Amino acid sequence: MTTEVQDESAEVADQPEQEKSFFARGALIGLVGGALAAILLISVGGSVISLFDDVFGSGEEAAAPAEELTGDALLISTGSNLATTNGCIGCHSVNGLDGTGPTWTGLAARVDEEYLRRGILEPNAEIAEGFTEGVMPVTYADTLSAEDVDALVAYIQSL
Ligand code: HEC
User: Fold this and answer.
1) Which of 49, 75, 88, 117 sees the fewest Cβ atoms within 10 Å?
2) Per the confidence metrics, is the pTM higher than 0.70?
3) Residue 93 domain boundaries
4) Domain holding 83: CATH number?
């Protein structure tokens, strides 16, 4: 009987220890759970914010898209495209070497804008030195708009 009582008291004495470790485990689980929940919240919050940015734009990117050209850069790039689509570059190089027609490299440094316009619209008005009359098509005055000519001139001036 005495032994039993002793055992029981030993059990009772043990209990707080067990409870302590039970609570400690509970607290640990709570902490880990809390941390995981926080990480989940942050990452969900982050994707919600980036989704918001995607939908409504975050400023910089929307303000200046890389491919959107304006002003002179737009005019020059339009001129470069027109030189390709109208076949100019088949006769005029931009690498400094003369072909069927004189190279455009450095041309604008030697002549003025009026000369360039005339060279496009009335190719036979003045013949570039070393080249022959009647080779460059005379049809561009009919097929190119005033804006096209502006763009082509800006492109040649940029070379
Ligand atoms: C079939 C060949 C050919 C094509 C295509 C051609 N050209 Fe020419 N171009 C010439 C030749 C040859 C000359 C030189 C003779 C002359 O001045 O007319 C010339 C001269 C010029 C000149 C004066 C160059 C200088 O050094 O004095 C300009 C500017 C010019 N071309 C612009 C253009 C533009 C812009 C286009 C396209 C819209 C074009 N050319 C298409 C052959 C061509």
Assistant:
1) 49
2) no
3) 71-157
4) 1.10.760.10
